[in-house]
């Protein structure tokens, strides 16, 4: 499962890290709380001005070695609670893009709380729609 490998992706002078634990949900897998990641500022400053004759395989040898060892860098598949991930996601992301969306989301959340405290079946059916 090569797409589960935490590796450096290399295209000549460009090196980018691939962190599958941060995007696994996009591929239909169970999303875990991702590990902290850091990208190299030095790698992002590299450009080709005056460097078109460089041997990038040699310059980026450490990243090439990580890529060549990709089968030993595959993330283990671990399951954890979706609630735990959802709680983490809510605290690390923007849940609403607009003020209107925020108000509607909060109203729905409060309506669900009222529904849970109510014994009235008509409220239950309204909240589930």
Number of domains: 2
Q: Would you report the number of β strands?
A: 2
Given as residue ranges, the uncertain stretches (5+ residues, pLDDT < 50) are: none
**Mean pLDDT over the full residue set:** 78
Strand order of the largest sheet: 1-2
Report the total helices.
Answer: 6
Shape: elongated
What is the terminal separation in angstroms?
A: 39 Å
Helix fraction bin: 40-55%
Binned strand content: 5-15%
- Main pleated-sheet profile: 2 strands, antiparallel
- Helix-strand string: EEHHHHHH
Estimated radius of gyration: 23 Å
Alpha-beta classification:
mainly alpha
Describe this structure in words.
The structure is a single chain. This protein has a two-stranded antiparallel sheet with strand order 1-2. It has two domains: 71 residues, no CATH class; 34 residues. Strand 1 and strand 2 form a beta hairpin. The model has no long low-confidence stretch (mean pLDDT 78). The longest helix is centred in the C-terminal third of the chain and has 19 residues. The protein is built from six helices and two strands; from the N terminus they run E-E-H-H-H-H-H-H. It has 129 residues and is mostly helical.
